Amino acid sequence: MWLGALVLAVAAAALAPAGEEEDLSMPGTESQKAFDLLDERFPEGDSQGAEARLVFKAPDGQRVTARENRAVVEHTLDSLDGGAQVASTTDPYETGAVSEDGTIAYSTVNYTADAVDLTAATKSALEDTASQARDAGLTVEIGGSALDTEEEPGGTTELIGMVVAAVVLILALGSLVAAGLSLLTAFSGVGIAFGLVSALAVPLGLSSTVAILALMLGLAVGIDYALFITSRFRDERAQGSEPEEAAGRAVGTAGSAVVFAGATVSIALVGLGVVGIPELTKMGMGGAGAVALAVLVALTLVPALFGFFGRRVLPRAARKASSYRRPGNERPHRVPTAAGRLGLGTRWARFVLRRPVAVLLIAGLGLGAVALPALRLELGLPGDESKSVQTTERRAYDLLSEGFGPGFNGPLTVVVDTSESADTRATTDQAVKTVRGVDGVASVGDPAFNRAKDTAVFTVVPKTAPDSGETKDLVHAIRGAVSGVEADTGAGVLVTGTTAMNIDISEAMSDALIPYLTVVIGLAVLLLTVVFRSILVPVKAALGFLLSVGAAFGVLVAVFQWGWAADLLGIEQTGPVMSLMPIIIIGIVFGLAMDYEVFLVSRIREAYVQGASPGEAIVSGFRHSGRVVAAAAIIMISVFAGFAGMNSPTIQTMGVGLAAAVLFDAFVVRMAIVPAVLALLGHRAWWLPRILNRMLPNVDIEGEALSRHAPASATMPEAAVPPLAVRRH
């Protein structure tokens, strides 16, 4: 059934038309209201339509106004004018679009369709025209929204990440077959998810970012979930269970934890929809779908492959130690352990138990220090300035900054709605005069009126770059200044443009960050209270989550704003952190943090409810789950870090942030802070008020009910039960 679903998904993706990128929007903001007003009052135009800027630079020592260079520019524009989907082209010599030194000029090409609707032939014609001008000796680059290069998955860094994941699986499981099983099931789930996203890209308007997020999350959680269930299956086989019974117990225990963990990740991702940004909602839904598929694959395809591969799933030592009545009929077996040999997880747990205060202080203060840069977090949206210098958009951006100033790449659009005002011209002139008097404005263009003469629009060029804090302050200053015009005339004056839209979205993200974090923390405490039937354990988990997220934000600020280790990651331009990243990282890391919390602490609680002391329960939990959780974290870090090498600022920021967050959460919070806090709390860690004990449902992800109803074939003789009923292998 899964093979059939994979074939159908791949076929659907292959037959479906390729999706296109959509403009980022946020209903309710001033900039979006202005765009909607322009579409209504200027129906012949498109406020967010496709636009290309052809930027020409003369050879060294020459001017672009020279006769031979001017002839090349005009011939280039003539060949574009009247082409398919081309609405108009501007002549830089008539519009004054020539730099003061005469070396750089630009032409604006307007299209009849949005950027997402431009055909490949239209884009190809634009690129061919630029190539012809280059052949004539000019430097020509293309900016604007018409050409928008997107990074596709499948690069070298992603491949390295997958190789690291495969090596870790082999080392953790000690079996090529078991490692291959985890990879095979993960690829199956992510193949279906990626195929569905690609097939639905056009009807649902899904961008490449949605597909890459589904690929990233599907690979990471798919491998981890298969690893957890496979590890538990091997534990049960080492206990003497028959293969079918071991598979059932693995799904009934580790599988229950997978369901809870996957549901937690999905809920956090779906919750991204409350922010109000359609693109963010689609990313959350796409990621949640990939996670849900990973859960279904882990619960059904993984145990099916246990039956298919048989004893080859077990490590070599287990296969040698077992005996068989006949091929294919396996007898229960137990793998003896070397006397006195302790695993790394056991030794680490005992070390933490001896020095819980020191471990807690070092880990907590260390994460706090890493999180300090997060106090300087600045949010923004990436533009052409953040792209690689290998792209023509970035080179066009640099040429325009060189010739016309940094603010030229981020013009603002002021819309004057005079439908409620008697004197349209006077109101518009007052608005223009007011804006010209605002500090930080480089120039103000002449206003243009619609046919009904009830709406005017004019362009404002800032003195500073689009992603600078000064430009953000300028937008607020202009809005504050024109409020006086609105009060005097009754007209509506709105500031918009791509730069203003980016600023509005970034501020909305900042405002939504704390409420969303509050909801996520509350959800974590509630879910973990139900799972672990404890008050202090969920509170500890939530505080640890805050530490790991804060440290991840600190890394983002240090790398992407301050430029630390930027060369290693190929980051050519520092600037604000992409405004969508904090909320996305919070949503994803929340679910992943709960994964590790559940898989590790559930084994600790399992030993505790079976009679172990608090300290012995911690050692037992690390003995059984420490190695698996560490391997799962390394795999997830490898997958996320593999995407950090892409040229897309969105995916690069996401990869670095998620890799750092998982590193801190798994190896510092869950491996150090959790056992230290549990050791200090002792029995109090598992205290739950009686009223809550009666009210809360019993989730039982530890499989207590399975232990009470264990079949005779899987039950160890009384003499063979180790102290504290802790199973050993």
TrEMBL record:
<dbReference type="InterPro" id="IPR004869">
    <property type="entry name" value="MMPL_dom"/>
</dbReference>
<feature type="transmembrane region" description="Helical">
    <location>
        <begin position="628"/>
        <end position="646"/>
    </location>
</feature>
<keyword id="KW-0812">Transmembrane</keyword>
<feature type="transmembrane region" description="Helical">
    <location>
        <begin position="289"/>
        <end position="310"/>
    </location>
</feature>
<keyword id="KW-1133">Transmembrane helix</keyword>
<feature type="signal peptide">
    <location>
        <begin position="1"/>
        <end position="18"/>
    </location>
</feature>
<feature type="transmembrane region" description="Helical">
    <location>
        <begin position="159"/>
        <end position="179"/>
    </location>
</feature>
<keyword id="KW-0732">Signal</keyword>
<keyword id="KW-1003">Cell membrane</keyword>
<feature type="transmembrane region" description="Helical">
    <location>
        <begin position="543"/>
        <end position="565"/>
    </location>
</feature>
<protein>
    <submittedName>
        <fullName>MMPL family transporter</fullName>
    </submittedName>
</protein>
<feature type="domain" description="SSD">
    <location>
        <begin position="515"/>
        <end position="680"/>
    </location>
</feature>
<feature type="domain" description="SSD">
    <location>
        <begin position="182"/>
        <end position="308"/>
    </location>
</feature>
<dbReference type="InterPro" id="IPR000731">
    <property type="entry name" value="SSD"/>
</dbReference>
<comment type="similarity">
    <text>Belongs to the resistance-nodulation-cell division (RND) (TC 2.A.6) family. MmpL subfamily.</text>
</comment>
<feature type="transmembrane region" description="Helical">
    <location>
        <begin position="513"/>
        <end position="536"/>
    </location>
</feature>
<dbReference type="InterPro" id="IPR050545">
    <property type="entry name" value="Mycobact_MmpL"/>
</dbReference>
<feature type="transmembrane region" description="Helical">
    <location>
        <begin position="658"/>
        <end position="681"/>
    </location>
</feature>
<feature type="transmembrane region" description="Helical">
    <location>
        <begin position="210"/>
        <end position="229"/>
    </location>
</feature>
<feature type="transmembrane region" description="Helical">
    <location>
        <begin position="357"/>
        <end position="375"/>
    </location>
</feature>
<feature type="transmembrane region" description="Helical">
    <location>
        <begin position="577"/>
        <end position="596"/>
    </location>
</feature>
<feature type="transmembrane region" description="Helical">
    <location>
        <begin position="250"/>
        <end position="277"/>
    </location>
</feature>
<dbReference type="Pfam" id="PF03176">
    <property type="entry name" value="MMPL"/>
</dbReference>
<keyword id="KW-0472">Membrane</keyword>
<feature type="transmembrane region" description="Helical">
    <location>
        <begin position="186"/>
        <end position="204"/>
    </location>
</feature>
